[in-house]
Amino acid sequence: MTVPVYEALRDRGFIAQATAEDVLPNLLQNSIACYAGFDPTASALHVGHLLPIMALVHMQRCGHRPIVLVGGGTAMIGDPSGKNEMRRILSREEIEDNAVKIKQQFSRYLDFTDGRAVMLNNAEWLLSLNYIEFLRDIGCHFSVNRMIASEAYKMRLETGLNFIEFNYMLLQSYDFLHLYRDHNCVLQLGGNDQWGNIVAGIDLVRRVTGATVYGITLPLITTAAGHKMGKTEAGAVWLDAEKTAPYEYYQYWMNTDDRDVERFLLLFTLLPVAEIKEYAREQGSSLQRAKEILAFEATSITHGIDAAQKARESAHSIFYGEGGDIDSLPATTIEGQRLQQGIAAYVLFEETGLCTSRAEARRLIQEGGAYINGKRVQSFDEMVGAADFKAGSLILRAGKKRYHRIMPQ
After folding, report:
1. Rounded CA gap, 152 and 157, in Å?
2. Quick one: the chain helix, strand, coil %, rounded to 5?
3. In 182-302, where do the E strands start and end?
4. Predicted pLDDT at 117
5. How far is it, in rounded angstroms, from Cα 34 to Cα 61?
6. CATH class of the domain comprising 5-218
7. 331-408 belongs to which homologous superfamily?
8. Dihedral, 343, 344, 345, 351 alpha carbons, nearest 10
């Protein structure tokens, strides 16, 4: 028997807050249109975007119609929510290019055939607004006192909130009104820091149309160690294979803190809850098996089963000496002439991104955490050249789990 979507989201830990909690479960018994917004401030989405993406996936699996709203218009303003300072203002060309790339990424998660899901760009209606008419028809419904009391603006009032950002709540609210009018969308999903913006949109729809619409916010995920979700020593973990290779993505999930395994299996895989609860009871080597399942399932959803299988085979080949290849490891090619001359080990670790600087690479080597082809590097200026290659490649390792492959050009 299929679990209703509200109960599925609640049981998996997706719901932080919801409006009209006494009404929503019954409303969601029937098919509705819902939306979540994603401002194209970069050329790819990252792991921090996964929670609303997975929420939309569950909505679709339960028979609802997701609307992915790419914020080509709102990105030109910049959302102040949760930020200590103003976001960098992107050019229209940058935003449009990012929006195109983000649209392509969503097709991995949702089925857009036959209108089962819809992807829209709010630039289509926001950029053509007449400012005076907008202030007269929409701005009159907003209380400045209520706006500055919202969490979206409180933090910024201390450091400085400019008038451009102050308009963001109005624009996001107008999005909800537009989607209700044109697509019968009655539910908005967003991060918990979006609560004020979502409630403002609900209020605007009620004031303008008399209709009741709803909102659900999702928890802002931090790891058990207190780190922001999707951040690593190397930077953000991207959902684009060109920015974060599938093997690196797989390893990100393999490195999950023991305390987060059950929670992440619930949030970032589609495995049944009962099955996940069984994995959560395991300890030691069995818990490691649960991490492998998490890594494989999460990588399959984002990069496909073939990429997940290759990443798993590479990990087994490296860590356990089992069969498989290392083709899915992140790789860098280096000119043959440089290899003939030899390159200092610390330079290699910096150039491949295993270390963020040469000073960090020297420290890593001095502390005994750097390896080349399984052998510990003894000196930071140890020269590495063509003679060190095995089977056409060189494997660098930083610490226990971060690998990189070097190939001659």
Report:
1. 10
2. 50, 15, 35
3. 185-191, 214-218, 231-232, 235-236
4. 96
5. 13
6. alpha beta
7. RNA-binding S4 domain (3.10.290.10)
8. -70
pLDDT above 80 for 360 = yes
> CB–CB of 214/27 below 8 Å?
yes
**β-sheet bridge partners, residue 225:** none
* Pick from 348, 353, 358, 351: nearest CA to 382: 348
Give yes or no for a contact between 330 and 248, defined as CB atoms under 8 angstroms apart.
Answer: yes
CA atoms of 186 and 59, how far apart (whole Å): 13
Q: What is the CA radius of gyration of the chain?
A: 24
Question: What's the pLDDT tens digit per position in 317-335?
Answer: 765 443 445 666 777 888 8
Task: Cite the active site residues.
Answer: 41, 46, 49, 83, 87, 172, 193, 228, 231-232
E-assigned strands of 183-298? Answer: 185-191, 214-218, 231-232, 235-236
Give the number of other Cβ atoms within 10 Å of residue 91's Cβ.
Answer: 9
Nearest to 395 by CA among 406, 381, 384: 406
Neighbours of 10 (CB within 10 A): 17
Measured CA to CA, the distance from residue 166 to residue 339 in angstroms comes to 55
Token pair 């290779």 in the structure block, residue: 245
The band of 1, judged by pLDDT with boundaries at 50, 70 and 90, is very low
Q: Is 404 exposed, middle or buried (0-12, 13-18, 19+ CB in 10 A)?
A: buried
pLDDT tens across 75-112, in order?
A: 887 665 545 444 566 787 888 888 888 888 999 999 99
Domain positions in the chain are: 5-218, 231-320, 331-408
The correct answer on CATH 3.10.180.10 for the domain covering 231-320 is no
**Interior/surface letters 196-222, b for 16+ CB within 10 angstroms, e for the rest:** bbbbbbbbbbeebeeeebbbbbbbebe
Owner of token pair 């697509």: 183
Structure token digits, residue 48: 């921090």
